[in-house]
Amino acid sequence: MGHLVRARRDHYLPGDTAEAVIRAVRVGGRLTCLSLLSMLSVFVLRHRALHVHLPRNASRMRSPHDRRRALSSRTRRGVRLHWLPLINPPGKSACVSILDALAHSVLCQAPRAALATLDSALHQGLVRMDEVADMFHALPAKYRVLFALLDPRSESGPETIMRLMLRGLGCEVKVQVAFEGIGRVDLLVDGWLVIECDSRGFHTGWESQERDRRRDILLAARGYTTLRPTAKMIIDEPELVLAAVKRALATRPR
């Protein structure tokens, strides 16, 4: 039998429990929001704090690093507490449900980042669209406008963010468009501009670059123009990417 970890008084967890889960239980709650979603390989734009859900009657909260120290303004640094009533009863789990984690992530992120997280969870089949619709009814009404912007066909967080940036420009954007003899492209803008959101995991190595360049040449032969911003550019330099897109759109030959 494996050893146990004493997270706090009367709370023991298996020795192989993830450290973030142990720290959340030590505080006095359950792991949630970006902390839990990142563990499940759901896209989150920024993740630094420990996100913990607490019941309304929570008491005797402790430092996530030391169960002997009370949670104070000093020991609370790096901890984000969530008090929203849960959608799904967690039972004895040390984590909230993924639907509750997604609900909390909407409150914790800017709209584009929240939509990228939701698209990621939907695309991976971790939740259904009808469940997400119900989730939005549990959130303040001002967030419900986001539901219409979801698209589970988006295969990555940066792709969702890029799609929303393009919509902000008033462009017509189609997602995951298939071209005979070439394959699918991430985004097709105004019927002629192809945007591929490249990530390190799928576009490294000479063979991958050769394949990508061949696709671009084949698309060019059919009258399409391709832009390939990296995921890092989309996230860290959105103004640069948008400037390139605007210039391309403005200079399209008639």
From TrEMBL:
Protein name: DUF559 domain-containing protein
Family matches, as InterPro entries: Restrct_endonuc-II-like
Gene3D superfamilies: VSR Endonuclease
